[in-house]
Amino acid sequence: MTKTPTSPERTTPTSADIAGMRQRAAEEIRRQLRPGQREMADWQGGPLAVSAVPGSGKSTGMAAAAALAIDRFGLHPRRQLVVVTFTRSAAANLKVKIRENLRKLSLPLGGFATYTLHGLALHIATRHRERSPLNLEDLTILAPDRNHRIIRAAVEQWIASHPRLFQSLLEGREFDGEETERLRRQSVLRTAVLPDLAQTVVREAKSSGLLPEDLRGLGNDGAEDYPILDISAGLYEQYQKLLRSRDAIDYDDMILAALRVLEDDAVRRFWQTQVFGVFEDEAQDSSPLQSRLLTLLASDADGADPPNLVRVGDPNQAINSTFTPADPVYFRRFCQTCQERDNLATIDRAGRSTQMIMDAANFLLDWTNDRWQGGEMKNGNIDRKRNLTEIEAIEPPFQVQYIHPVSPDDPQPDANPSPEGLGLEIYLPDDVYQSIELIGKRAIELFENHPQTHAAVLVRTNNQGRLVVAELERLYGDRLKVYDAGSGERRLQVPREILTLLQFIDRPHSPDYLKAALTVLVDRQLVPTQDLDALASLPEQFLYPGPLDPTPAPPVKVARRLCRSLLRARIELPLSQLISFLALTLQYDRDELATAEKVAERALQQTSSDLSLSSIGFVLSEIVSSERFEPVETENAESPYARSRQLTVITAHKAKGLDWDYVFLPFLHAQTVPGRLRVLPQSQFLGDLTLAEVARAQIRVLLRHREFGELASLSLPSSPISWDVAGQLKIAEEYRLLYVAMTRAKRLLWMSAARLAPFTWNKPENLTQSEPAEAIVALRSHFPHCAL
Predict the structure, then answer these.
(1) Which of 29, 50, 166, 259 has a beta carbon 3.0–4.6 Å from 312's, enabling a disulfide?
(2) Burial code of 161-174, b = ≥16 C-beta within 10 A, e = fewer?
(3) Widest CA span of the chain, in angstroms?
(4) What's the CA gap between 194 and 136, in Å, rounded?
(5) Helices in 106-250 by DSSP H: which ranges?
(6) Whole-number Å distance between alpha carbons of 280 and 186
(7) What average pLDDT does this structure show over 690-696?
(8) What confidence tier does 627 reach under pLDDT thresholds 50, 70, 90?
C-alpha cells in the first residue's frame, strides 16, 4: 500500500515576521539612495530643507522618503502625509513611485495623498462650503493674460474713474499736444502699458496676500513722475470688482479661499489632525501665500511642535520668477534657517551627465557669481551705500552648490555616462543659418553612430524654435526626424487668434481690435514688424486713406492689404466658411488647421439657431476663457520629447525636468544671454523705464521686507532704483535658465553663438553683427580644447 505524501503545513507569518520583512525592505529602499536622499529618508519630523542639484533624483528620493515616513509614523487615511508639487503630471508620477515603495514595504496605499498646490487649496475650500467664499457650481476659473477681456475691462474702468492720472500718463515726460501723437499714446496706454501693469500687479500682489489698499500711498515721496503703486492699486481694485460681478475666480483665489477657511479654529484643527506632515516638491517656485498654506497644514494642532514640513527644491533652477510671483529668495531663506538648526540636506551627486558637462555647469555658477559680486553685471550704477531696503533684492544669481558625480556603486544604470567626443563643443558660426546647418549634420552623425539615443535643440523663444524647425526640415527633411514641441502650444492659440480676427472684422474701426489683429499678423510673420499703435490710432486713415493722406511705407501697405482682404471676406463669404478662411490666411500648418476646423464645428453647432458674427464670437470667447485640462500621463510623461533618433526642438523653460543624450544650445548671443530690460520705442514717452517692471520690483521689496523685516521702517526704492532692481532680477534669471539648459545634457553639450544674428526674431532674415554672450566667451577660454 502506497503512502500518500503529506503537503508541508502552511504557517501564517507572525507580526514579528512581517515586521522583519518590512524592516529588510526599508533597509533595501534606503540602500538604493544617495547621500542627501538618505537624510530625507531618515526624517524624524519637524522642518527639513532639501536642496538638490539637477539630475540628482530628488523625486526618487522624495518618493522613498514618503513611503518610509508612512511606515515609520504608522500613517493611514485619517492621518496622512500630504505630497504637493507644481504640475498634475508631476503629482501623478510621484503618486506612482510612492505606491511602488509602499508595495515593497507591504503597506496599504492610503497613508498619503498627492496634490498640486492649487488642487490642494481647492479641495480644502470646497470641503467646507459653508465657510468658503467659493461656490464652484456657479463660478468660472480664469487664468487671465494681458489680453483677457477682464484685464482690458479693468483698464477701461480705471481710465474712466481716474481721468487726471490717465492724462498725466498721456503727457509723459513731454507733450506738444499734437492730435496724432495723443491718439498714438492713448493706444499704447490702453492696449499695452496699462494691461501689462494690471496683469503684473494682480499676479504679484494677490498671490502674496496683498490687497489694493496695501499698495496705496507707498513710494510716493514727491520725487516720482507717476504714482505707480497708486495706479496699480486702482487697476487691481477694478479687476477684483469685475471678477466678482462675473462670478469668476483666478488661481490665487483658490489659495486665499483655503486660507480663509482655515482661519476657523475648528476647521484648522480638523485639517491639522488629518495631516501629519507635508512634503513639497519644486519649493523654489512657491509664492509666499502658497508657503503659508503648506506651513499651516503641516503645523501641530496644539501649536506645541514645529511644523512637519519637508521642502525640496533647487534655488539654482528658479526660472519662473520674471513671469510668475515665484521668488527663489524665500526657499533660500528657508534653507538658511534649516541649516542653522542642522536641518538642511543637500543632494549634490547627480548621475545624469558626464563629468565635462558638470564641470561646465559648475564653472558657469562660479563665473556668474564672481562677476555679480564684483559689480560687473549691474543693470545700472547701484550705489552700494544706499539703505538695505533699496538693494536687498540684489542677491547672487546662484546658491553655491556644485554638481558632483555619483559613487561607483550607485544603483542608477549608466550613471555619469561616458562622453560623446569631448562632451562639450562650443562653436562660433558665421550666422544663425549656419548654426542650424551644423546642428542638423551633427545630429545625423550622432544618430547613425548611436541609433537608440535622442537629442534636443533648446531655444529661448518660440520664434527661434519655428526657424530651427523650418530650416532643419528644409535641409534634412528626409534624413532627420524633427519634433516641434511648440506646435502644441501654438494649437492652443488658434481659438484666440481666430477670435481676435473676428472681432476686428466685426468692428474694424475699433483701435483696440485693429491693433490686436495686427499683432496676430505680426506674430505669424505675415506682416512686417512696425509701430502698430500709430496705425491703430487712426483706423479709418489706415484702412481707407484719402488722397491727401501721406504715402505709406511698404510695411504699412502690406498690413493694409491684408486687413482689407479680411474685411472683404465678411462680405464675400458665408459665415459658415469664415473661420476656415481665417485659418488659411494665417497659414496654419496641418495640426493648426485641424484645430481650427474643430473650433469651427463647435461654433456652428452652438449657433445653428442664431448664426451671426456676434454669436460665433461669443462661442469663441467662451472657448478662449475656459480652462483646458490636458490628459495627465502617470508614467513617461516626457516620452513625446525623448524618442530614439528624434531631435526635439523645445524652449529652455519647457525643457526643465527633462533630459537628452545630446543637447544643442544655439543663439547664445549677448542680446539674449542675459539681455537687458528695454523700453519699447512706442512707450518711451513715459521715460526710461516700464511701469510694470517698476511695480514688480517695488512689490517684491515690500514683500521681502514684510517677511524678513519690520514694516514700520519700510521705505520703498524710487522708480529708477526699482528699474535697476528689476533689470538685475532678469539678468539673474537668464543665467539660471542657461544653467538649466546646460544641465539637460547627458553625453554631449553643443553650444554656439553666431557672428550674424537677427536684431528681432520676427525678421530672422535681417541679420546684423552680433556679439557672443560673455558666458560663452568665458567657457571657450576656460575649456579651450572644446572651442571648435
Answers:
(1) 50
(2) ebeebbeebbebee
(3) 124
(4) 30
(5) 117-127, 149-161, 163-171, 179-188, 194-201, 212-215, 228-245
(6) 46
(7) 93
(8) very low
The CA dihedral of 695, 699, 702, 704, to the nearest 10 degrees, is -130
CA–CA gap between residue 120 and residue 111 (Å, rounded): 16
Rounded to 5 degrees, what are φ and ψ at 189? -65, -45
Buried b vs exposed e over 638-647: b needs ≥16 C-beta within 10 Å?
beebbeebbb
Reported as a single tens digit per residue, the pLDDT across 387-427 is 434 444 468 999 999 999 999 988 888 899 999 999 999 99
Residue 86 buriedness (CB in 10 A; 0-12 / 13-18 / 19+) = buried
Rounded to whole angstroms, the Cα distance separating 629 from 717 reads 41
CA dist 659 to 177, 285, 347, 641, 751, Å? 56, 20, 18, 9, 16
- List pLDDT tens digits, range 135-152: 666 667 777 777 788 999
CA distance 732 to 657: 20
Q: Check whether 448 has a pLDDT greater than 80.
A: yes
CB atoms within 10 A of CB 8: 6
Q: Cell 544706499 maps to which residue?
A: 386
Bridging pattern class, strands 745-752 and 756-758: unpaired
Sheet with strand 646-651: strands edge to edge: 424-427, 745-752, 660-665, 455-459, 646-651, 481-484
Looking at residue 101, its amino acid is: N
Cell numbers 489632525 label which residue? Answer: 273
Residue 436 in grid coordinates:
542650424
| pTM greater than the 0.85 cutoff | yes
Q: For residues 114 and 278, give the distance between their C-alpha atoms in angstroms, rounded to a whole number.
A: 10
Closest to 274 measured CA to CA, from 266, 283, 282: 266
pLDDT band at 323; cut points 50, 70, 90: confident
The cell 505709406 sits on which residue?
A: 552
Helix (H) or strand (E) holding 665: strand 660-665
Would you state the pLDDT for residue 321?
79
Amino acid occupying residue 108: P
Q: CB of 101 within 8 A of CB of 63?
A: yes
Q: Is 55 left (phi over 0), alpha (psi -120 to 50) or beta?
A: left
Please name which of 318, 413, 352 lies closest in space to residue 57, comparing C-alpha atoms: 352
How far does Cα 317 stand from its chain's mean position? 12
Confidence of residue 634 (pLDDT cuts 50, 70, 90): very low
Residue with cell 531618515: 42
Q: Are 407 and 442 in contact (CB under 8 A)?
A: no
Query: If you search the block for the grid coordinates 465678411, which residue do you land on?
Result: 570
Distance between CA atoms of 164 and 13, rounded to whole angstroms?
Answer: 82
Q: Let me know: does 58 contact 52? Beta carbons within 8 Å.
A: yes
CB 330 within 8 A of CB 289: no
Mean confidence (pLDDT) of the chain: 88
483's CB contacts (< 8 A; 6+ apart) are 640, 641, 643, 646, 647, 648, 649
3-state DSSP of 383-444: CCCCCHHHHCCCCCCCCCCCCECCCCCCCCCCCCCCCCCCCEEEECCCEHHHHHHHHHHHHH
Q: Residue type at 153? A: A
Residue 224: Cβ-neighbour burial (10 angstroms; 0-12, 13-18, 19+): middle
